[in-house]
Design goal:
The chain is α/β, with parallel strands linked by helices. The chain has 6 helices and 6 strands, in the order αβααββαβααββ. It has a 5-stranded mixed barrel. A hairpin with a 2-residue loop joins β2 and β3.
Length: 141
């Protein structure tokens, strides 16, 4: 009986450890991690901050504003925008954004990028006027 109870508890623990919901599924990554080790994040839901371009055939999340302006697409991932994001593209274009979606190592438009973000669930400004947010002193640990 004691072994049966122990087995059930262990089995339940294994089942619970396999269950993941909502935000727990999302991996916080830097765009640099996606560029350097795309195979590690292939097929995973990710959250990242990057510089966004929504221009036609130049939709990307870039490592930096300079990389975007210089057209260095290997320092970027292609982003498949939702229709709702396309409608507000003038608001998010050329700004730092926080993005949540599924990453694939597919090279994006004309195989020019270092991966693709699709199935976007979140695309919001990061900071104001495209500048990264800096935590206030009382928020730092």
């Amino acid at each position: 009986m004691r072994n049966s109870v122990l087995s059930i508890v262990l089995l339940a623990g294994l089942c619970v450890s396999e269950i993941s919901i909502g935000a727990a599924d999302i991996v916080d990554v830097s765009i640099l991690q996606l560029i350097v080790t795309p195979e590690k994040f292939d097929g995973k839901s990710v959250r990242l901050i990057a510089f966004c371009s929504t221009a036609f055939e130049y939709q990307g999340l870039f490592l930096s504003k300079d990389d975007c302006e210089q057209g260095i697409t290997k320092n970027a991932v292609w982003v498949e925008l939702r229709e709702s994001d396309k409608k507000r593209s003038s608001e998010i274009d050329r700004r730092y954004v926080v993005v949540e979606g599924v990453f694939t190592k597919d090279k994006g438009q004309l195989s020019m990028y270092s991966g693709t973000i699709h199935r976007i669930t979140r695309l919001d400004f990061w900071g104001s006027s495209g500048q990264p947010r800096v935590p206030k002193k009382n928020q730092q640990k």
